[in-house]
């Protein structure tokens, strides 16, 4: 009986020694890791797969204009505005970029006695400058394409909700305003590559835009 007790006591001591050895090894590993060099990872953003650039003419029969759009863009027409039904001659379009999570809103209006050119230009100017609170800068670029279409492109920098806005007109009958938006929080750093890519598509639209 005594022999058995001594054996059990011996086993307990051996287990206790193993336990202390394990604690010592773990502490040594923790202390050695604390002295290693730590280099923070660089800020990174999700990779974006850009579609191949290719354009096609978009010529809706119900609208008094046409332009080239990217083949990867989809166009839909607004039929209501804040619950009010739009007239058939009010050609308001949305040019979607599904793979890039963006949209260009196009609002067409006739120039008439109620909506004269001066008022329409002033409204477009005010809409563009509403975004200057978050913008670092705003450049006004004159548009004058080969089809006799003129206007202004507003190029805004920084965390503006819309970095690209514009209007086009023939100064007599037709007027259209456009604005580019992304379905994500405005962040100039993360959105810069995507914005530059879509901005090139918008410029192609403006370059090829013509009245019918």
Mind explaining what this structure looks like?
By secondary structure, this protein is an alpha+beta fold. The chain has two domains: 1-33; 55-211, Protein Transport Mog1p, Chain A (3-Layer(aba) Sandwich). 32% of the residues lie in helices and 33% in strands. The chain is built from three helices and twelve strands; from the N terminus they run αβββββββαββββαβ. It has helices spanning 2-34, 117-129, 188-208; strands spanning 55-58, 65-70, 74-77, 80-81, 84-85, 92-97, 102-110, 135-144, 150-158, 164-169, 174-182, 210-211. The protein has a seven-stranded antiparallel sheet, sandwiched between helices. It has a three-stranded antiparallel sheet with strand order 1-2-12. A two-stranded antiparallel ribbon has the order 4-5. It is globular, with a radius of gyration of 32 Å. Residues 1-14 have low confidence and may be disordered.
């Amino acid at each position: 009986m005594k022999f058995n007790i001594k054996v059990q006591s011996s086993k307990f001591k051996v287990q206790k020694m193993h336990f202390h050895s394990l604690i010592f090894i773990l502490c040594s590993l923790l202390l050695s890791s604390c002295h290693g060099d730590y280099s923070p990872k660089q800020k990174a953003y999700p990779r974006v797969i850009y579609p191949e650039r290719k354009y096609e003419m978009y010529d809706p029969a119900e609208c008094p204009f046409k332009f080239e759009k990217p083949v990867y863009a989809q166009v839909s027409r607004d039929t209501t505005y804040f619950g009010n039904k739009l007239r058939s001659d009010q050609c308001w379009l949305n040019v979607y970029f599904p793979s890039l999570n963006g949209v260009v809103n196009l609002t067409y209006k006739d120039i008439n006695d109620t909506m004269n050119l001066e008022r329409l230009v002033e409204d477009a100017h005010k809409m563009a400058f509403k975004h200057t609170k978050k913008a670092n800068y705003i450049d006004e670029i004159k548009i004058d394409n080969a089809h006799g279409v003129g206007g202004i492109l507003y190029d805004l920098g920084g965390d503006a909700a819309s970095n690209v806005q514009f209007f086009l007109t023939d100064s007599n009958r037709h007027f259209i305003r456009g604005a580019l938006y992304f379905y994500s929080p405005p962040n100039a750093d993360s959105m810069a590559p995507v914005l530059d890519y879509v901005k090139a598509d918008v410029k192609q639209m403006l370059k090829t835009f013509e009245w019918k």
